[in-house]
Design goal:
The protein is α/β, with parallel strands linked by helices and about 350 residues long. Helix content is about 40%, strand content about 15%. The N terminus is likely disordered.
Length: about 350
C-alpha cells in the first residue's frame, strides 16, 4: 500500500543482514571493543543497504567518548529532582566529569530526543529518571554501547541498566500503617502513573498496609494521576467531595502533597483536627508549614551521588576490559513524624 508506514530498521535487522551478532554490530557502530575487519565491512555494508540510522550517530561514529555524562530528570522545578541533580553534580565534579542536564517533563518524546542527542554527542553515559514508556529506545541505546544508570525509577522490561532506587513500597506502607495505627479507616491516596515504578510501588505499599491490618480498601479513595501539582489539585478536590470523604490523605510526592494542602486550606479544613496529611518527600518547605508535615523522607541526594558513582565504576570497568554484573541498589526511606497527623475526629 502506498501510504503504509515503512518498517523501522533495528540493530537486530542489521545483525541478521550482516550475519553477525548484535554485540558485534554494537561494537562496530560505537567504536568500542574488538571487531574484525571482515565483520566491520559486513556491518557497514548492511547499515548502508538497510538505511539504518542509529539515533543520528552516523556522523560521529569515529569519535571517542567524552568526559561528559547526561542527566535526564523529569522536572527541574520540583525540589526533589533539584536535590537529586545536586548529588549527581557533586559526585561528577569529584570524579572529573561534566554533566548535561535535561528535563523531560514526563514526555516520552522529549526523553527519546534528549537520549538521541546525548548519544550523538558521544556522552560517556546517561543517568536517568525514566518516563517508563521508552523500553525499546533504552535497550537500543545499551546495545549501541551507551552506559545507562537509572535512578529513582526502573523501566519494566529493561534489565540492561544499573539501577539505584528507594524502597517505595516500604515507604508508603510505613506511612499508611502509621495512619491506620492512629485509628484512620478511610485513607485517601493520590499517587502517580502506574507506568512508573514509583507510582506503582507507592500504591502497592498503600494496599499492603491495609491488607496487613485486615482492612478492606474502598477504591473510590484511590486517585492515580500524574506526579504534577495540577492533577493533584483535581484529585484532592474529588476525594474531599465524596459523600464520605477520607479522614486522612497520603500524597505520593511533594507536588501532590502541596496540591492536597492547597485544597484542604481552600475548604477551610484544619490539619490535623479535620484531616491528617502525609506526603512522600521531605522537601525544605515541609517543615515550614503550619503544622509541619509528616513525611516519608528519601535519601534524595544519595540517589544522585550513588548513581554517578555506579556509572563511573562501570565506565572504568569498560576501559579496563573487566566484566561486572548489573546491580540494583535499594536505599531505605524513613518516616518522619511531625504535626500533621492525629486520631480521626468522630463522625
Amino acid at each position: 500500500m502506498r501510504n503504509a508506514r515503512r518498517k523501522q530498521i533495528t540493530i537486530k535487522d542489521v545483525a541478521a543482514k550482516a550475519g553477525v551478532s548484535v554485540g558485534t554490530v554494537s561494537r562496530v557502530l560505537s567504536g568500542r571493543g574488538y571487531a574484525s575487519d571482515e565483520s566491520r565491512r559486513k556491518v557497514l555494508r548492511a547499515v548502508k543497504e538497510l538505511g539504518y540510522r542509529p539515533h543520528g550517530l552516523a556522523r560521529s561514529l569515529k569519535l571517542q567518548r567524552t568526559d561528559t555524562v547526561g542527566l535526564l530528570i523529569t522536572d527541574v522545578v520540583n525540589p526533589f529532582y533539584s536535590l537529586l541533580a545536586a548529588g549527581v553534580l557533586e559526585c561528577a565534579r569529584k570524579l572529573g566529569y561534566h554533566v548535561i542536564v535535561s528535563a523531560t517533563d514526563e514526555e516520552p518524546e522529549l526523553e527519546r530526543e534528549y537520549l538521541e542527542v546525548l548519544m550523538e554527542e558521544r556522552a560517556a553515559g546517561v543517568i536517568a529518571v525514566p518516563t517508563g514508556k521508552n523500553v525499546r529506545c533504552w535497550k537500543e541505546a545499551v546495545e549501541l554501547g551507551t552506559e545507562v544508570v537509572l535512578v529513582d525509577r526502573e523501566v519494566n522490561g529493561f534489565a540492561e541498566a544499573d539501577v539505584v532506587l528507594v524502597d517505595n513500597v516500604k515507604g508508603a506502607q510505613d506511612a499508611v500503617s502509621y495512619l491506620i495505627g492512629l485509628g484512620h479507616r478511610r485513607i485517601g491516596i493520590i499517587t502517580g502513573p502506574l507506568e512508573t515504578t514509583t507510582g506503582a510501588g507507592r500504591l502497592e505499599g498503600y494496599r499492603r498496609a491495609h491488607q496487613e491490618a485486615g482492612l478492606p480498601i474502598d477504591e473510590s479513595l484511590v486517585e492515580v494521576v500524574s506526579f504534577k501539582r495540577e492533577s493533584g489539585i483535581h484529585a484532592a478536590q474529588r476525594l474531599l467531595s465524596l459523600p464520605d470523604p477520607p479522614t486522612a490523605l497520603f500524597a505520593g510526592n511533594n507536588a501532590l502533597g502541596e496540591a492536597a494542602l492547597t485544597v484542604i486550606r481552600e475548604r477551610g479544613l484544619s490539619i490535623p483536627a479535620d484531616i491528617s496529611l502525609i506526603m512522600f518527600d521531605d522537601v525544605p518547605w515541609a517543615c515550614h508549614t503550619s503544622p509541619r508535615l509528616t513525611v516519608v523522607n528519601q535519601p534524595t541526594h544519595d540517589l544522585g551521588y550513588i548513581g554517578m558513582e555506579v556509572l563511573d565504576r562501570r565506565l572504568r570497568a569498560l576501559e579496563e576490559g573487566t566484566e561486572i554484573a548489573r546491580q540494583k541498589t535499594i536505599l531505605m526511606p524513613e518516616l518522619i513524624v511531625r504535626e500533621s497527623c492525629a486520631e480521626p475526629r468522630p463522625r
